Structure formats: C-alpha cells, structure tokens
C-alpha cells in the first residue's frame, strides 16, 4: 500500500519502534498529550518535544495539517505505521491518530535520538 499524501518522509521500522517506546516511557515518567486536538494545541503553544503521527488514519485529513503546523512551529515530528500501536504506547485501549511528548521525563535520551534521526532523514531527502 502506498503512503498517505501527508507523509513527508520514510521512517524505518526501528525508528518507529523507538518513537513508540519514547511515548510509552514519557507517558510513565513525563507528560504526553493524546489525540489530534490535544496535539494541535500543544504544537501551537510551542510545548511539543516530539509529535508522533499515525499513517493509517482514515480519513487522512484528520492529521494532514499536523506536519505543516510542525514545520511552521519548528516542532519535531515522526510518522508511525499504526494508530493502534500508538494507542497502546499511550496506555489506552483504542487507537490514537496523533500524540505529542510535552515533557520527556526518563525518555529524554530516546526523544533526542529520534529527533536527531529525523533531522538526518529530512536533510537526506532535500539533497
């Protein structure tokens, strides 16, 4: 299946798993916001450390504005394949289209790794 139109760069399975892990650890020791609305507000307020966007969202328009908003606000963002797995990382029984880490807590080193990897992916894509 092809990627949705809002996906700006390809993310490896390892990097996606690191993002899930960062969300899980930050949920326990820091602060996360779940859902598209909460995520949008956090980006607009400039408090997002890492925005995680699911690729399998129907309709895609639900999250299509997030990458654009992140670019405008210089917030780091990553795409993950499954909203169900994102929901599980957040500790909820339903899928989540988007989430953001506001305070990383013990996940700080994972968040930094993911952010640096994303920066590398974006610069490689521009060349």
From TrEMBL:
Keyword field contains tRNA processing: yes
Domain Ribosomal protein eL8/eL30/eS12/Gadd45, chain residue ranges per copy: 18-109
GO biological process terms, semicolon-separated: translation; tRNA 5'-leader removal
Spans through the membrane: none
GO MF, one annotated term: ribonuclease P activity
GO CC terms, sorted: cytoplasm; ribonucleoprotein complex; ribosome
Cleavable signal peptide: none
Localization of this protein: Cytoplasm
Record key words, sorted: Cytoplasm, Ribonucleoprotein, Ribosomal protein, RNA-binding, rRNA-binding, tRNA processing
Domain of life from the UniProt record: Archaea
Cytoplasm recorded as keyword: yes
Family as reported in the entry's similarity comment: Belongs to the eukaryotic ribosomal protein eL8 family.
NCBIfam families: eL8_ribo
Quaternary assembly: Part of the 50S ribosomal subunit. Probably part of the RNase P complex.
Function of the molecule: Multifunctional RNA-binding protein that recognizes the K-turn motif in ribosomal RNA, the RNA component of RNase P, box H/ACA, box C/D and box C'/D' sRNAs.
Name of the protein described by the UniProt record: Large ribosomal subunit protein eL8
Source organism (scientific name): Candidatus Nitrososphaera evergladensis SR1
Name of the gene encoding the protein in the UniProt record: rpl7ae
């Amino acid at each position: 299946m092809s990627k949705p139109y809002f996906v700006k760069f390809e993310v490896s399975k390892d990097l996606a798993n690191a993002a899930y892990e960062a969300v899980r650890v930050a949920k326990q020791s820091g602060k996360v916001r779940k859902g598209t609305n909460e995520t949008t507000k956090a980006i607009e307020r400039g408090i997002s450390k890492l925005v995680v966007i699911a690729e399998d969202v129907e309709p895609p328009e639900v999250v299509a504005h997030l990458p654009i908003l992140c670019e405008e606000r210089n917030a780091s963002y990553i795409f993950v394949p499954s909203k169900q797995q994102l929901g599980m990382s957040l500790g909820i029984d339903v899928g989540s289209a988007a989430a953001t880490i506001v305070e990383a807590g013990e996940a700080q080193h994972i968040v930094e790794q993911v952010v640096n990897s994303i920066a590398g992916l974006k610069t490689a894509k521009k060349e």
